């Protein structure tokens, strides 16, 4: 038995997490750049909670609130310019996966003024400013992962920056998700579930990542039931946020695999939300496994009889209406086949034909 494990994020999980634990930020400096989206953090109260906390701590701050879904490197450069002007000591990301990932990238750009959108992927190992994460959806787990996924328009795809940027603090308050619309709740929950699946059925899986994944599957047994019944109680919101965090902890050790890598094309070219892009590919991805041992154990934890049972759950939760031509399938498959980082995380050999079949049978 041999594995490495690193989880440097200090996690505060409770309703009122920011207010009750704000003093944890004092060690990070006296100036903060807040990175968030256009409106959701204002509606759910997370932005006000954070600015109230910073004012109480006498920490100066500025707010960049123009992060789009699937943030681009161009947006990262604009936000980092604001942080450089402020001479920020740390960066606070508030929102779903897009603002959290953007905050990590901004922290990297501020700390390394010599990098930009054109040379970031050829740089070596870099340090970043400290990052504080305040998730307001339950899906990406970005608050406990080192990954920053950005849109690279010149390559027409999404990709990881390639640097390890763990938030130093995560304030996890499920009350910020109480008023999330049903469709966003489903999309993000499916994203969290696919993190658990792809970490569990992964070349890099180990006893610790499996422990978190199995705990997440146990939570999803009731989370799926609540989603199907549309009973989105406080208890559900807390459970799915915890499951999302477990998924993040697991992929921080293992990385993601085929559905995530294949889903990027569906998000970039077809505007399919990230979670659904993963989810719509997951059942066919699972069918492609020749060794069913861990897959069977995973389904057993959730008390799902077989993959048809999982497909039924997904069919009850979302409908995806996009069409792919054979030319598009071939293009996406060939492109993904070049993604060696994702392919090496899959424990069985796959070729372009297998990837094409997953796309075709899923859509």
Describe the protein.
The protein has 363 residues and is α/β, with parallel strands linked by helices. 52% of the residues lie in helices and 12% in strands. The protein contains 15 helices and 8 strands. The protein has helices at 17-21, 40-43, 46-56, 73-86, 97-111, 182-200, 207-229, 234-254, 258-270, 274-287, 293-301, 307-317, 326-336, 340-345, 352-362; strands at 10-13, 31-37, 60-67, 90-95, 130-135, 149-152, 157-160, 169-172. The strands form 2 sheets. Strands 1-8-5-4-2-3 form a 6-stranded parallel β-sheet, with helices on both faces. Strands 6-7 form a two-stranded antiparallel sheet. Strand 4, helix 5 and strand 5 form a beta-alpha-beta unit. Helix 4 (73-86) crosses helix 5 (97-111), helix 10 (274-287) crosses helix 15 (352-362) and helix 13 (326-336) crosses helix 15 (352-362).
């Amino acid at each position: 038995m041999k594995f490495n494990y690193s989880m440097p994020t200090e996690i505060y999980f409770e309703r009122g997490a920011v207010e009750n634990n704000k003093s944890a930020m004092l060690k990070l400096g006296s100036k903060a750049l807040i990175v968030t989206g256009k409106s959701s953090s204002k509606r759910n109260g997370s932005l006000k909670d954070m600015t109230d906390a910073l004012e109480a701590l006498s920490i100066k701050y500025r707010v960049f609130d123009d992060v789009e879904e699937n943030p681009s490197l161009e947006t990262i450069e604009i936000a980092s310019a604001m942080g450089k002007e402020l001479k920020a000591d740390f960066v606070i990301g508030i929102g779903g996966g897009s603002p959290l990932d953007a905050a990590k990238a901004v922290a990297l750009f501020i700390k390394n003024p010599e990098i930009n959108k054109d040379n970031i992927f050829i740089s070596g190992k870099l340090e970043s400013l400290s990052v504080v994460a305040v998730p307001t959806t339950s899906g990406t787990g970005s608050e406990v992962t080192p990954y920053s996924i950005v849109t690279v328009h010149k390559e027409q795809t999404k990709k990881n920056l390639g640097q390890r940027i763990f938030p130093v603090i995560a304030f996890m308050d499920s009350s910020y998700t109480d008023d999330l619309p049903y469709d966003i709740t489903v999309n993000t929950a499916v994203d969290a579930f696919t993190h658990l699946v792809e970490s569990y059925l992964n070349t890099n899986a180990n006893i610790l990542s499996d422990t978190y994944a199995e705990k997440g599957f146990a939570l999803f047994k009731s989370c799926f039931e609540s989603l199907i019944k549309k009973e989105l109680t406080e208890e559900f919101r807390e459970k799915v946020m915890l499951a999302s965090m477990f998924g993040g902890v697991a992929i921080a050790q293992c990385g993601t695999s085929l559905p995530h890598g294949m889903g990027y094309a569906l998000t970039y070219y077809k505007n399919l939300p990230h979670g659904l892009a993963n989810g719509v590919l997951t059942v066919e991805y699972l069918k492609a496994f020749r060794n069913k041992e861990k897959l069977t154990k995973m389904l057993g934890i959730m008390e799902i009889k077989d993959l048809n049972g999982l497909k039924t759950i997904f069919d009850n939760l979302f409908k995806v209406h996009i069409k792919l031509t054979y030319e598009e399938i071939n293009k996406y498959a060939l492109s993904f086949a070049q993604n060696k980082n994702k392919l090496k995380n899959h424990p069985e050999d796959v070729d372009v034909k297998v990837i094409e079949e997953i796309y075709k049978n899923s859509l």
